[in-house]
């Protein structure tokens, strides 16, 4: 959708540059995932530095001289920090920018140690990998991910990252939940695409939507009275064209699946009334296709 919204070429132009833009934007999602793992590593280092500073206080209390090292000793964070394959990839992609932007690490660390989750964690006498993992999941979900300053930072770093954050956050937590002390290093490095077919689908959807842009625009215009031309050039227009492309060019994708997916996208990125508007048009188109036996779907349970 982002690639099509940014599309400035014509149907007859070479689509290679648009495809490169798409693949680059998808690849940058993986960079976001890796940069968040780098952030967790820096927060882990920060916990060690914090304890060392407390111990060096000249007039420190007994608590300062014997700080609780449970965060510092967190087994999940140790697993992430000691993953050579992960750290090499982060280094090669130059994604450990937290050394330069250390103030964000400081902000997040202070928020973590002030949280009730942190108090409950360090005061729990039992230490297990499962509990260490759950603590990281909890502080990531409740303290790190919702942090406005971190959100603004990612937006400034790369504009598309803000849209990628929900998907990346979900993926990150899913990966962490599955980790074990015996997991291979590759467990922290999931594939960007499910398989090669997944990648080809993204490219094909982009290409076929662009190549049929005029045809889809004309068909959409006929399905509504009092058409708002500004809407066709907006996100709503892009969403409708992508849905038509799936209707017509991807026979294995059920109509219901396509409609539900694009309604969710419209709710997230367009106006409050867009999902109703889009649902009405797509429903009308599907009924017409079915009555005229056009663009029939193949496979089980397809509508």
UniProtKB/TrEMBL annotation:
One of its GO terms (cellular component) is cytosol. It comes from Winogradskyella luteola. The gene is nusB. The lineage of its organism: Bacteria, Pseudomonadati, Bacteroidota, Flavobacteriia, Flavobacteriales. This is Transcription antitermination factor NusB. InterPro entries: NusB_fam, NusB_RsmB_TIM44. One of its GO terms (biological process) is regulation of DNA-templated transcription. GO terms for molecular function: RNA binding. Residues 194-287 form the NusB/RsmB/TIM44 domain.
């Amino acid at each position: 959708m982002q690639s099509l919204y940014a599309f400035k070429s014509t149907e007859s132009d070479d689509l290679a540059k648009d495809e490169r833009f798409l693949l680059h934007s998808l690849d940058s999602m993986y960079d976001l995932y890796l940069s968040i793992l780098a952030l967790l590593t820096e927060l882990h280092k920060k916990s060690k530095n914090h304890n060392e500073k407390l111990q060096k206080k000249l007039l420190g209390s007994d608590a300062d001289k014997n700080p609780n090292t449970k965060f510092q000793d967190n087994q999940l964070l140790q697993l992430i920090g000691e993953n050579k394959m992960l750290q090499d990839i982060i280094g090669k992609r130059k994604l450990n920018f937290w050394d330069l932007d250390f103030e964000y690490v400081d902000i997040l660390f202070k928020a973590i140690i002030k949280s009730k989750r942190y108090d409950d964690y360090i005061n729990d006498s039992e230490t297990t990998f499962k509990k260490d993992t759950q603590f990281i999941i909890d502080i990531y979900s409740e303290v790190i991910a919702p942090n406005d300053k971190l959100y603004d930072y990612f937006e400034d770093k790369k504009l598309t990252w803000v849209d990628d954050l929900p998907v990346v956050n979900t993926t990150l937590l899913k990966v962490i939940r599955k980790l074990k002390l015996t997991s291979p290093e590759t467990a922290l490095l999931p594939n960007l695409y499910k398989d090669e077919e997944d990648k080809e689908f993204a490219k094909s959807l982009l290409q076929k939507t662009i190549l049929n842009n005029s045809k889809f625009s004309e068909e959409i215009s006929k399905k509504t009275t009092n058409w708002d031309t500004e809407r066709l050039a907006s996100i709503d227009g892009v969403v409708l064209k992508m849905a038509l492309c799936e209707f017509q060019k991807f026979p294995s994708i059920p109509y219901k699946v396509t409609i539900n997916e694009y309604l969710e996208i419209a709710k997230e990125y367009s106006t409050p009334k867009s999902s109703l508007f889009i649902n009405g048009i797509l429903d009308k188109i599907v009924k017409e296709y079915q009555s005229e036996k056009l663009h029939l779907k193949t496979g089980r349970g397809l509508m």
